[in-house]
Amino acid sequence: MSVGLRKAAALVQRALWVIFFVQIVVQFFVDPPYNYWWGWLPAVGAIAISLVTSRSAKQRIKAEPPAPVEVAPPVTGRWSALNSPADKVPSHGTHELGQTYAIDITAEPEKGPRRPTPVWFWPVARRGQAYPAFGAPLLAVADATVVHAEDGQRDHLSRSSLAGVLYFWLIEGIGRTLGGARRIVGNHVVLDLGGGVYAVYAHVQRGSLAVRAGDEVAAGQLLARCGNSGNSTEPHLHFQLMDGPDLDTARGVPFSWRGVGVPGGGETFAVGEDVTPVP
Asked: Which of these, 61, 68, 138, 213, is most buried using a 10 Å CB contact count?
C-alpha cells in the first residue's frame, strides 16, 4: 500500500469514527431519520479499513522481514519494559501509527521511591511525580536531525486503578482517537536518524523540550523528559522506529538498543548512569 493511499485511509477512518460518535450523541436528543442499525455502518467501515491496513502490513513483514536497526538506549538508569516487540509483533496490537515494533518502558530505580503498583480501587489516580519515570531525561539514540518536537499538551493523572482504566478506555481513549495521532502519542519528539529511519519519543513531559524542529543533535544529547501526556496510563516512554516522519503513514522498523538488545515485557534492564546527557 502506497504512502498516499495509507494517508487517505487514515483520514477516512478518522472521519468515519467522528461520524459514528457524533450520531451517538445526537441520538440522545433526536431520533435519526433512518433505522438505528444503519448508524453502525461508519464504525464497521472504520474497523474494515483497520483490518485491511493491518493485513497489508502483515503481508509486507512476512514477505520482507526488516532487519533491526541498532541505536543507543534513549535513557540511563534502571528501567523495565511494559509492552515489547520481544514478546509479540505488533507489540501494541496494531500496526497503525508505526507502532509495529514499539516498546514502552518505565523507571524502576533500586534506590529511592518505588514505582506505585496498579490498584483495584484506591487511590483512583496519582500525580505524575509519584512515579520515578516522571521527569527522567530522554536522550538522542544517534546523531540526528529533529523533525518534530512539541510539549504543549498536559500531563494527566495516572490511570492505574480500575476506575481510571475504565475512564481511560471508555471516555478519554475515544476522545484521543478522534483527535488523531498527536493526541494519542501526546507530546512527542521525532528524529531523522538518516537512511530512511526515524525515531519517536512519545508521552513527553509538558514544557520539558530541550530541542526544536530543525536542530542537529548528537547521540546522548538531552531531548526532553519523560511524562504522562496522550494515551498513557502512567508516566513512561513509548519509543519506536519508523520508515517515515508521518505517524499516519509510517511503517514500524525493528530496533535493538546497543548493550541492551530488546528487553521483553516485565524484564528489567540497566543502562550505565555514568553516561552524562550532552547539554
From this structure: 138
